[in-house]
Amino acid sequence: MAHIQEITSLLHNPSDADLALITKAHDFALHAHEGHVRNSGEPYFNHLFATAKNIAELGMNATTIAAGFLHDTIEDLHITGEQIEKEFGGEIRFLVEGVTKLGSIKYKGTSRYNESLRKLFVAMSQDIRVLIIKLCDRLHNMQTLQYVPQEKQLRIATETLEIYAPIAQRLGIKKLQRDLEDLSFTYVYPHEYKEVQKLLKLKKIEQEEHLDKFQRALKKELAKNNITQFRIDHRVKGLYSLYKKLKRYEMNIENIYDISALRIIVPDVSDCYKILGIIHSIWRPLPDRIKDYIASPKLSGYKSLHTTIFTGDGGIIEVQIRTEEMHKEAEYGIASHISYKDGFKKKTSNPNLLWVHKILPGRRHTTETKPLQTGDVPHWIQQLVEYQKEAGEEFLDDIKNDFFQERIFVFTPKGDVIDLPIGSSVIDFAYSIHSDIGNHISGAKVNGKFVAIYTVLQNGDRVEIETKKSAKPSLKWIQYCKTTMAKKHIRIAQEKN
Predict the structure, then answer these.
(1) Residues in contact with 155: Cβ distance below 8 Å, sequence separation at least 6, in sequence order
(2) Rg of the Cα atoms in the chain
(3) 136 within domain boundaries
(4) Strand-by-strand arrangement of the 463-467 sheet
C-alpha cells in the first residue's frame, strides 16, 4: 500500500504543521472512504492518494495537497462543508467545495455539458488551485481509464484532450498538458497513435546516436571554455504533440527536427547566451531555427534559447538552453511559483503570472469568499467568465475556437498583454477589450502606424484603438473576425440599430 512518505518527501523543507495537516487529511480520507471501491476493484482511497501525489509533484503547498485528499468527500460521501471546515479550516473547505461544485463534466446533452464548463471557468476565476486539483484528479482518472466501461472511455478522453489539456497548456503546466494529451491520444485516435508510435520508434534510435555523440563533444567544448556549472538532459517530444506537428508536414517525420531535444540547464541568463555562442562557433545552425524566448517569452511565460544545429555526422539536433528557474517554470507553470513557506514568490521573472499573488496561498478563504477583482486573473480567464454568461448551445465549440486554439499576444498602449487566436484582426482586439470599444471603433494604430481595422495582427504587435460615439459596426466586419465573441457583439449591435 502506498505510504504517505511518498508525498511528504516531495515537499521542500516542510514544517511540522505542514506534515501534520497532510497526515490528518490522509487519515480522514482513508477512514471516510473505507469500503468504497473503484471500477478496477481497488480501494477508492488509491485515487485520492494519487491525486494528492500529483499535486505534490507540481510543487503545491500542504493546504492544496490536503484538499486533494479530501476533494471527493462532499460529493461522494455524507460529509458536509461545515464538517470539513471544523476539521481543516475555511480555506480547505473553500477548495474542496470549489472542486465539488464543478461536478463531473459529461457529454450528456449540450446544455448540461455547457453548464458544467461554465462552472469550471467561474471556479478558475475564483481560485486557480481549484482547477489544479481538478487537473490532477483528471490525470489519475486518465491513468486508470482502462477500467472504465468502454462506452465511456472515448467521451472522457475527448473532453480531456479538448478541454483539460488546453487549460493546462494555458496555465503553462507542460508536465500536466503532455501527460493528459498522450493518455487521451490512444483512446481518441487509436490508429494515429499506433502510426506515430511506429514512426517515433524508428527515428528515436537514429536520433539518440547523434545526441550521444554531440553531447560528448559539447561537454569537452564547455570545459575548454571553463564552463563547469551546468547539467544536460534530453526530452523526447510527446506523442500527441508530435502527431500535431506531423500533420503539418504530411506525416513526414524527416521534416521534424525537435523529436528529441538536448537541454542545457545553467545558473544564470548570461550563461545561456555564452553557451549559445560556443555552440554556434563550432556547429552550424539552421538560420530560421534560432529562437530567443528569453528576450521574447511565449504567452505561457515559457523562456529558453532554442537553436537547431547540424551535428556534422548527418544529424540535426535541437538544443534548448535555460536557467533552473526557467526549466522549473517550463514544466510546472503557475504551480512553480508556489513555495511551502512563503506562498507565491515575491519576485517572478514572468510578468504574465504576477496575478497569481492574489490567488494562491495568503488569501484568507471563507465560505463567503468573493470572486477576485478585475486585474487579479489573466485577461483570458476574465473573458471566459464574461463570455459564459451570454453563450448559448454552441458554447463548447465557441470556446474551443476562441480560447484553446494557437495564440498570439499583442499589447495595449499601456503594455498590458492581450492574447488572441492566431488570425485575429484589429476588430477582434477591440472587442476583446470591451464591447463598447469594438462597437465604436473608428480607427487603429499598430506599432505606431495607422492601419485598416481589418488588419490581421501578428505576435508582439502594439495596438491602439480610436473610437467615436457616432461610429457603428457593420455586418461586413464579421468576415474579418476570428473570434466568436466579436462576431456575436457585431450581430447584437446590428439588431439594436
Answers:
(1) 106, 107
(2) 24
(3) yes
(4) 449-451, 441-446, 463-467
* Whether the Cβ atoms of residue 440 and residue 468 lie closer than 8 Å to each other: yes
Residue 398 belongs to some domain of the structure? no
Q: What is the pLDDT along the chain (497 residues), one digit of tens a residue?
A: 568 999 999 988 889 999 999 999 999 999 999 889 888 889 999 999 999 999 999 888 899 999 999 998 887 777 888 999 999 999 899 888 888 776 644 444 444 445 555 556 555 556 778 888 989 999 999 999 999 988 889 988 988 888 788 888 877 788 899 999 999 999 999 999 999 999 888 887 778 888 889 999 999 999 999 999 999 988 888 899 999 989 888 888 888 878 888 999 999 999 999 999 999 999 999 988 899 999 988 766 789 999 999 988 888 899 999 999 899 888 887 676 643 334 444 444 444 444 444 333 333 334 343 333 333 455 555 555 555 555 555 555 555 555 555 677 788 888 776 778 888 999 999 998 888 999 999 999 998 899 999 999 987 788 999 999 999 999 999 999 988 888 888 988 887 76
Residues 351, 414: Cα–Cα separation, whole Å: 14
The three cell numbers locating residue 387: 463570455
Q: Indicate which CATH number applies to the domain containing 21.
A: 1.10.3210.10
**Beta carbons of 46 and 38 less than 8 angstroms apart:** yes
Q: Are residues 158 and 281 in the same domain?
A: no
Distance between CA atoms of 93 and 25, rounded to whole angstroms? 12
Residue 466 counted as domain residue = yes
**130 and 219 housed in the same domain:** no
- Evaluate whether 356 touches 395 at the Cβ level (below 8 Å): no
SS3 208: helix
User: Per the structure, how many domains does the chain have?
Assistant: 3
Q: Give strand pairing partners of 318.
A: 261, 308
For residues 134 and 240, membership in a common domain is answered with no
The model carries a pTM of: 0.71
Buried b (16+ CB within 10 A) or exposed e, 344-360: bbeebebebbebbbebb
Q: Tell me: do 194 and 248 sit in the same domain.
A: yes
- The residues annotated as belonging to the active site are 75-76
| Residue 354 placed within a domain | no
Domain termination site, one of 155, 186, 217: 186
